[in-house]
Specification:
The protein has one domain (2-70). The protein has helices at 2-9, 11-31, 38-70. The chain has three helices and no strands. Helix 1 crosses helix 3 (38-70). It is elongated. The chain is mainly α. The relative contact order is 0.18.
Length: 79
């Protein structure tokens, strides 16, 4: 129950997690230019990918919950 409340109440957190994941993923991509930093680049790729995934899942759950509670956009309210 607490997870749903968190997801519903803090959509900005999911966006921030996704953005940080994207930045870490990008930095990992740049580090692949230097062969000596390849191991760090791999780990940043993994961590960044995980952050992007968490951000996307959180956003999807938020949208689902919002539609469940308020109805889908463009849909007329049931009376």
């Amino acid at each position: 129950m607490y997870t749903r409340e968190f997801v519903r109440e803090f959509p900005t957190v999911h966006l921030a997690i996704g953005v940080v994941g994207n930045i870490v993923f990008f930095v990992g991509s740049v580090l692949f230019v230097s062969p000596s930093l390849e191991l760090l680049a791999i780990w940043l790729f993994i961590i960044g990918s995980f952050g992007m995934m968490l951000g996307a899942i959180g956003q999807a759950v938020y949208i689902h919950e919002r539609h469940r509670l308020n109805g889908a956009p463009g849909r007329r309210p049931v009376r």
